[in-house]
């Protein structure tokens, strides 16, 4: 049983990395199998619906990791301004060290597939909803009104996602740092 779980996990992790680097359409099933060092039949054994099902699992894995990182970071400080800024500073540092090379986790799949695959669009949407919900919950804990907290959760997530995209394009974390600088003004009550 351990080998089956290990093969499936290797396929998902390899696919996640390749989708981030090359996009959904730039990544082939053969490459995923080869780079994961998995037996040829294992991909369709674990993912009978093929590449799309594997991409859904990859997005879910990445989204779960990111959601937990956001939650963990936001819990370090009671003050929502400080906690959100701290999260963005962590992201900027991570970007400088690693993401600049590895790509944007969910955006590549979302942009490439949202018009052609409803299941992938939905899983990407759910991931982004989970991210913004973390910000909303933090603001609710700080006594923001529910509607305002929801709107700001969306805006904060949009700002971070946009900053990631521009940071990735420019190869520089400055856009993320600029977003962090705007959080105090955005969250004034």
From TrEMBL:
Residues 5-65 form the HTH tetR-type domain. Residues 28-47 bind DNA. The keyword Electron transport does not apply. InterPro entries: Homeodomain-like_sf, HTH_TetR, Tet_transcr_reg_TetR-rel_C_sf, YxaF_TetR_C. The keyword Transcription regulation applies. Gene3D superfamilies: Tetracycline Repressor, domain 2. One of its GO terms (molecular function) is DNA binding. Keywords: DNA-binding, Transcription, Transcription regulation. It holds the Pfam family TetR_N. This is TetR/AcrR family transcriptional regulator. It comes from Cytobacillus horneckiae.
């Amino acid at each position: 049983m351990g080998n089956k779980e290990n093969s499936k996990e290797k396929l998902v992790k390899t696919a996640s990395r390749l989708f981030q680097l090359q996009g959904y359409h730039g990544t082939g099933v053969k490459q995923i199998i080869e780079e994961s060092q998995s037996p040829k039949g294992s991909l369709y054994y674990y993912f009978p619906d093929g590449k799309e099902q594997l991409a859904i699992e990859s997005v879910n894995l990445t989204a779960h990791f990111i959601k937990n990182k956001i939650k963990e970071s936001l819990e370090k400080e009671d003050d929502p301004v400080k906690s959100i800024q701290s999260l963005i500073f962590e992201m900027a540092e991570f970007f400088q060290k690693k993401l600049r090379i590895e790509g944007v986790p969910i955006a590549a799949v979302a942009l490439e597939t949202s018009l052609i695959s409803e299941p992938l669009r939905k899983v990407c949407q759910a991931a982004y909803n989970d991210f913004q919900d973390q910000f909303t919950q933090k603001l609710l804990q700080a006594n923001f009104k529910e509607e305002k907290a929801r709107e700001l959760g969306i805006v904060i997530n949009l700002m971070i996602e946009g900053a990631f995209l521009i940071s990735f394009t420019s190869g520089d974390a400055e856009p993320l740092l600029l977003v962090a600088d705007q959080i105090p003004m955005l969250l004034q009550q």
